[in-house]
Amino acid sequence: MGRVHLSTMLDRDDTDVAAVCEPLPAAFEAATAEFAKHGLPAPPNEPDWARFIERFASELDVVFIVTPHVLHEIQTTACLEAGLDVLLEKPMVMDAAEAERLIAARDRTGRLLVVAFPGSLSPAVRTAARMIASGEVGSILNINAVTWQDWDRHTLGTWRQEPAVAGGGFLFDTGAHMLNTVCDLAGEDVSEVAAWLEDDGRDVDIRATVMARLPSGALITMNACGRAIPSLGSDIHVYCERATLRTGIWGERLEIQRSGRHRLAPVRSVARRPVWEQFLAVRARVEPNPCPPEVGLRMARLWDAIKASSASGGAVVRLDHHAIRGAA
């Protein structure tokens, strides 16, 4: 993912990638090849992230963190405290406690922190969220979301299937986009959750089903299958009192069917933009931050409740803003 983002950054006149922190020699070689494709020399590489900050912080404006999930909190906090703005790859952190500490670090340092969720950064999702929040389509009744991928085959033998490093499996990796976008569209923390995580003999979840209720009474279902045939896709339907909205977990579309209409129709919205371009607009204060750490906290609370429910055989877990409580 670092190289995917790098490919969109190197064509820009307003961005200089001044240094890289890549501990794996083969991965740095691949990054060097990406620079070469753009006619640029590779910048210096400092493999140790703590030394990277000590060595380069005074020369940088921003750090883009694209590392295994377990490193996100400690690395982001160190960068913020070094006076750097941060664009952080998803999922933001491993749990709600880390999310709260990261918000405190952001507030303490006064630096910018944007979480790189394409869904929250998508004009399609932002448009849908505004339509819901404004009351234009009425209150949410139900949300149904699904995502699928042959994730197990692709990630077997990698850190993404190591619980202590990844924090979860398919639902916390590709599925994190679904959790985040659903939370974003809902606009409020869930109040009750029941979930089942199936590992299919792996060390992390491969398939999952989640049911949830919002304080408003709206109901949510989410289905994640990480053992699909070779494929990758998603779908989200938001059923409201006066319309049905359809999008995807990455904000790859937006359609609406209003009351009295017979089918979904595309909603005109601004063209999608790369994550880095969105971040620069937020940093320049041209746009508000569409994915601050508060959005990451909402998702982290949901993820904590999902794990707690699944560990209790799918028992309903009730949430408040400070704790997760099991219910018989």
SSE layout:
Layout: H1 2-9, H2 25-37, H3 49-56, E1 62-65, H4 72-81, E2 85-89, H5 96-109, E3 113-116, H6 118-121, H7 123-133, E4 140-149, H8 151-155, H9 163-166, H10 174-186, E5 192-198, E6 207-213, E7 219-225, E8 232-240, E9 243-247, E10 254-258, E11 265-266, H11 275-283, H12 293-311, E12 317-319, E13 324-326
Helix pairs in contact: 1-2, 4-5, 5-12, 7-10, 10-12
Helix content: 25-40%
- How many H/I helical runs? 12
Uncertain parts: 324-328
Strand order of the largest sheet: 11-10-9-8-4-7-6-5-12-13
Tell me about the biggest sheet?
10 strands, mixed
Q: How many beta-strand runs?
A: 13
Strand-pairing-aware structural class = alpha+beta
- For this entry, what is the oligomeric state of its chains? single chain
Shape: globular
Report how far the terminal alpha carbons are from each other.
41 Å
Q: What would you note in describing this structure?
A:
The protein has 328 residues and is an alpha+beta fold. Helices cover 36% and strands 22% of the residues. The protein is built from twelve helices and 13 strands. The strands form two sheets. Strands 11-10-9-8-4-7-6-5-12-13 form a ten-stranded mixed sheet. The chain has a three-stranded parallel sheet with strand order 1-2-3, with helices on both faces. The chain is globular and about 60 Å long. The C terminus is likely disordered.
